[in-house]
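hey can u check if this looks right to u? its 802 residues, i copy pasted from the old doc so theres a chance i mangled smth
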Amino acid sequence: MAADPTRRFISTTVEVEGREETKIVELPARTLTPWDADARLEIVGTAQPRVDARDKVTGAAIYTTDRLPPGLLHVVLVRSRVPRGRVKSIDLEAARRMRGVVDTLVFDDLPKDGKPIRAGGVRFLDPDVTYAGQPIACVCAESAAQARAAAAAVRVEYESLPFATTAEWAVMEGAPPVRAKGGNVSRSSPCTCKRGDADRGLAEAEVIVRGRYTVSSALHTAMEPHGAVAEWTGDQLTIHEGTQGVFAVRDEVATALGIPKSHVRVVMDHMGGGFGAKNHAASHTYAAALLARRTGRPVRCVLDRAGEQMDTGHRPGARLDVTLGARRDGQLTAIVVEALSDQGVSGWDSATCKIFHELYACPNVRTVERWAYTNTQAMAAFRGPGHTEGAFALERAMDDLARELGMDPLALRLRNYAETDQEKSRPYSGGNLQRCLEEGAKRFGWEERHARSSGKLGSESNYRIAPELDQTQHAGNSTLTPISPAGGPPRWRKGFGLAAQIWPSGGGPPAYATVRIHPDGSVDVLTGTQDLGTGARTILAQVAAEALGARLQDVRVILGDTERTPYTPNSWGSLTTPSVAPAVRMAAEDARDDLLEAASEILGVPVEHLSTRNGMIVPCTGAEAVPISQITAQLGDVTIMGNGSRGPNQRGVGLMTFGAQFAEVDVDTWTGAVRVVRLTAVHDVGRVLNPLLARSQLEGGILQGIGYALYEERVVDERLGLPLNANLHDYKIPTMSDVPAIDASCLDVVDTVANPVGARGLAEAPIIPTAPAIANAVVDALGTTLNDLPLTPWRVLAAIEK
């Protein structure tokens, strides 16, 4: 059904990673009937294996590092060894004389016909150094080994300047400016957000709890490092890059090089994780593109692990001072927060305090947030940015309040359940947090938690690691056997905790798709989105097959190519599925309608008497079904194509995901090691398009949350300003030995208000409540306060000693 022809464009609001963006978008040419809970779907909603699984397990999938065109050159970035200063001189002569070196690049070699090239918040190859690890030169050689050797031969002389590597240091009076130019920009103006009267709410409170909660800076640590392969053909540039936004990279490179966007093609086939760090063009992109133009040969720039860990972004560390006021029955009367976030040298202001305005019902909320800029790498969005940091402080404070009230932590959260979006005074499209809490508690056995181990460990029993295992190792895969206390405090203590989550994930326009049916009945779906390893290819193939009435095996999804596919936004903020799937469905239905018109002419059956199912044209008259391929074969060279776009979001409705997680932990009081025994998660994300992939997303987010809770912490030497753990040996992430028993599921609901497919995004949600649930379980086990992430052994032991 056609939309109003008198109104082609409309403004709409899209919420991305806690921020709102107002966009002018074109109204779709068709209106889709929502797939509601009664819709008879045969492919969507089923657990289909990944369509690219065979390619990945056989090694046929092509990643950026697999691109090895003839004549390929390799680039290595020379990085600053001081946190702040100015490059007085760069001696490249020894490097240029080395075998295999073809070219070098410094700031003065950059083209002057485009805008200043910015990467990671600073100018590319800027001699004004603002953090250790900042690229200051490039070396290009015939092989990667030769490039590395030549880069090591570059001699740099610096004029060192005072620096600040912590937020607390940066905001002190007299702190050095973070950047060499532009004055002191080490702090931003406070951002105050409020509703009601927080002071009055505290005055009315019968119980008040206060706490300071801190989270450390965390690194994305994707298995695939950042990389790009660039090649020029005349004045046309092609870049192969593992990116979350092919169109963003195209636009940024075209602007930086002063060339038309039509002269830049960006292709992303497969990638090994991004988590928010691969949203834009960066130093490796510009190095490859510029040196490919200078040398006339294809150029590859792939970061080593040290470069990946020190110069591709981080989740900001933060300090949050939280005050909660409540009545004796647990009803919140006031929430007051003062927060300070460490952005690094640059970045956007992620809303660490936003979750305090959203998650629980409270009439009086006031948050004051500051963002400090420091001489460390720039921040970058990291799975659930802002909410993940804020959730730790909020959910730890809620447990502290429950303890003060003598109230069950689950009952406290249910007492303060928010039925509507309080911040914007609007309903939710599907607010099911209460169901998540209740069903999660039932699956976990929350009410029976202390009885399940014959009494709470730490008060009635103890654990010992099986004799064959080292007594000091982390007990990730250990067999724990109970022993009797021997005159001292019990070694192993068991605890239980929970936490809740909210996240904007409704997606929105613009996003476009094209569906093409070939003469043999096979189908191509073309859309410019990216598959980060989340399974977008599979999801979109399922949606297209369902809408078209085709077999899933006949559908191929072509994505991530700015030259071949229509526009979609970056894959971030949990918006890929709710943004792109409706466009794919519309394109498939558009193609289906044309197919049925052609079939009607060929079969002599009225079009309204025809439908498609499982690759067949099915007459409702009882006549024999005909394969789609039989109809398309008779069309010869006529190509049936359908086009689709994402319509605007419904006004005045909050498109949020909700979730709850419950954790059981064992804590070794001798070593401070924490073992997550099991974790139950229940989330509300609207329709689950593929349960198998949804579970994979849930488990992946939970495992990252375990790392955030227990291990992951970027360490910078405050005296020298240098990162100390920019590798996978010292920067610990979870391994298979750390994986607990995970029971992860989604509610069986459909959100037709969010979009006609009925699904909201899932990628960010699972990481948000994991760390606070684990932290609350550890506090439950020890009966003491632990307010700092990660919960490393030394922090746990310090809490025990208190």
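Residues 430-501+654-801 form a domain with the Aldehyde Oxidoreductase; domain 4 fold (CATH 3.30.365.10).
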